[in-house]
Design goal:
Layout lengths: L18 H5 L11 H7 L7 H23 L11 H17 L12 H24 L8 H28 L1 H4 L1 E7 L1 H10 L8 E7 L3 H4 L7 E3 L3 H7 L5 E5 L5 H11 L5 E4 L17 E4 L6 H35 L5 E7 L5 E7 L24 H9 L6 H6 L4 E3 L9 E2 L2 E2 H4 L12 E3 L1 H4 L9 H16 L3 H17 L5
Parallel strand pairs: 1-2, 1-4, 2-3, 4-5, 9-12
Antiparallel strand pairs: 5-6, 7-8, 10-11
Helix pairs in contact: 3-4, 3-6, 4-5, 5-6
């Protein structure tokens, strides 16, 4: 993983350890977790920031809707808002609040700025609707007096919802705050941690500090020292860390770059804390974290991607259910052995899982560890297996991997651990090979529709494949997935570049 093929960093921070240390493979010694690291593992996985933001946005909309409905029961002469207008005002308020940063994760825990954003959106939205009614000649439909009364009802209701959710989120820190690990200077980390209280709440649960220098770490005050920087590898891959905050003086630019490069291939957010010794800002304002790297396909994009995965998987299962049963029967009749084949693959965050495929080789010649890749004319492939490989129909059972949440419908194809290209392990061929595991693997992907599919006899084939995978991760959009899906169906129909 990281550190296996990347040059040794010039700073005092050693590269993060490869995943084989965490698995306990012979010849690799993993660092022993200290007491602080063991305590960090006990924290439950928090709710997604997107889910929390959606909850608060829904309550903001509910405040507008309930106050609009209440106007229906007040004996106004004219101008009570109708249901379409109520829904539009609610959507407009939520949109303006989001544009003003009112749903950022730190904003959900209270403070003056998010309240100002929400109330400002309510006021601006109401003013725009009232002005539009006057300009369009519909003052009878929506009178200014009704607009003011609506604002009078909605404002206290919105404040109650906002203050209530902020208090609830602060009261459930292990379920709402993002788990953060500080890296770097002990004194700088202590100064930063001291600011994350009260009105400067950033929505972070600080697990502790990692630093190779135990003496420097001792100056971090009450922050537990989790261990050296190498501890982060196992913590991130076990899903114990959501954000890594680099806490060190900005003058240590080279060390910041080295740490940023080390963490670039992990599915975590990486931020840089301000150097508070030189930071000059209003004491009432929270210090701004500078974002260095974000998890790919995050926030609302992750919601869209998840919905897309399950919709496509269910549609594919509905269409391919009967053909899959017939294929399973053909596999059993063609040669002895089970119809399905389970093979260990590396998935999201470098975690292994078992991928499902129709068996295409003779059962006694099965190669679950991929000691030898299947080549054209391979004698181990059965007659039915050859057809399934040419048409990629052997991959259909992976629909169940998608429904289990282990894979996406579209994404980088999962590889078996230990697979080689040109005689060398994939991790040694490309320094950024592990970066493709920042998202879930897929049934098909950009590399496959470009023709980079099948065995990797040469290193160039792997390089082209990984380059396409990284391009997909960095440029993902629903339209890109649609393009890949269409091109996949065309490629399957032509039986192109399949084995």
């Amino acid at each position: 993983m990281l550190g296996m093929s990347r040059p040794e960093p010039a700073s005092q921070d050693a590269a993060l350890l490869p995943p084989v240390t965490e698995a306990g493979w012979p010849g690799f010694a993993a660092p022993r977790p200290v007491e602080g690291a063991r305590r960090a593992r006990q924290l439950p996985r928090p709710f997604s920031p997107t889910f929390l933001a959606a909850l608060v946005a829904g309550l903001d909309a509910l405040a507008v809707i309930l106050s609009g409905v209440a106007l229906q029961y007040i004996p106004l002469e004219r101008g009570s808002p109708q249901p379409p207008l109520i829904l539009f005002y609610a959507a407009l308020t939520v949109s303006l609040t989001g544009f003003g940063g009112g749903y950022a994760h730190a904003a959900l825990f209270g403070g003056r700025r998010p309240l100002t954003a929400a109330l400002g959106a309510l006021l601006i939205g109401g003013g725009l609707l009232a002005a539009a009614a006057q300009v369009l000649g519909a003052p009878v439909t929506f009178r200014p007096g009704a607009a003011l009364l609506w604002l009078g009802f909605a404002t206290p209701l919105l404040l109650v919802f906002r203050l209530g959710t902020a208090a609830a989120f602060r009261g459930l820190p292990h379920l709402t705050r993002q788990r953060a690990v500080l890296v770097g200077s002990g004194p700088q980390a202590a100064r930063f941690a001291a600011t994350l209280t009260g009105q400067h709440d950033q929505g972070l649960a600080l697990l502790g500090l990692v630093d190779n220098d135990a003496g420097t770490a001792a100056a971090s005050g009450d922050l537990p020292h989790l261990g050296p920087v190498g501890m982060l590898d196992g913590m991130i891959r076990r899903g114990e860390v959501d954000q890594v905050v680099l806490c060190m003086p900005w003058a240590e630019e080279r060390r910041v770059r080295d740490l940023q490069a080390m963490l670039a291939d992990y599915p975590v957010d990486v931020t840089l804390a301000p150097d508070l010794m030189a930071y000059r800002k209003d004491a009432r304002e929270a210090p701004r974290l500078l974002r260095l790297a974000d998890r790919p396909i995050r926030g609302w994009a992750a919601v869209v991607k998840t919905i897309e995965d399950y919709v496509l998987a269910l549609l594919a299962l509905a269409v391919a259910g009967v053909p899959m049963a017939l294929i399973a029967l053909a596999v059993r009749l063609d040669s002895p052995g089970p119809a399905l084949f389970r093979q260990r693959r590396t998935g999201f965050n470098n975690r292994d899982f078992y991928v499902l495929k129709f068996r295409t080789m003779y059962h006694d010649a099965a190669d679950p560890t991929v000691r030898q890749q299947v080549l054209h004319g391979d004698k181990r492939v059965t007659r039915v297996g050859g057809i399934l490989r040419r048409t990629s129909l052997d991959e259909l059972p992976q629909i169940f991997n998608v429904l289990k949440g282990e894979m996406s419908f579209i994404g980088p194809r999962p590889h078996a651990p230990g697979t080689r290209a040109g005689g060398r392990p994939f991790e040694e061929v490309m320094a950024r090979y592990a970066a493709r595991h920042r998202v879930k693997p897929g049934l098909t992907g950009l590399a496959q529709v470009r023709g980079w599919r099948g065995p990797t006899e040469t290193e160039d084939k792997l390089i082209r494949r990984v380059e396409s995978d990284l391009e997909y991760i960095e440029t993902w959009s629903p339209w890109l997935d649609l393009m890949i899906l269409v091109r996949t169906l065309l490629a399957v129909a032509r039986m192109r570049n399949a084995l």
